[in-house]
Task: structure prediction
Amino acid sequence: MLKLLLKWLLSACALLAVAYLYSGVQVSGFGAAMWAALFIGLLNALVRPILFILTLPITVLTLGLFFFVLNAAMFYAASGVIDGFHVRSFGAALLGSILYSIAGVIIDSALEGVQFGPRR
Result:
């Protein structure tokens, strides 16, 4: 549970970093980044698998490149729902989602060996 909270905090920081590095993504503050990171995570966990199955033929035809479009759609959808998190266009969502995904991979690899509590 503590690892999940730490990942959420780090994902919010990654979203702030994306907004700092790329002007197409704007985050008004840390609170908005926390909500946006939570909502993006929920969309990725609940909606993206369904969309992936529905768009599997297109994904196969594009040799997996359509998966970037799905990630951008989740990123762009979150910006439409969360106040304080704004993505300028779908192209900005595409680049922002790629940067955010890179940060997510770094966070996941950093937290891979982290263990909270007593070791067994």
User: Anything to note?
Assistant: The longest strand covers residues 25-27. Helices lie at 2-21, 30-46, 48-54, 56-61, 66-81, 90-111.
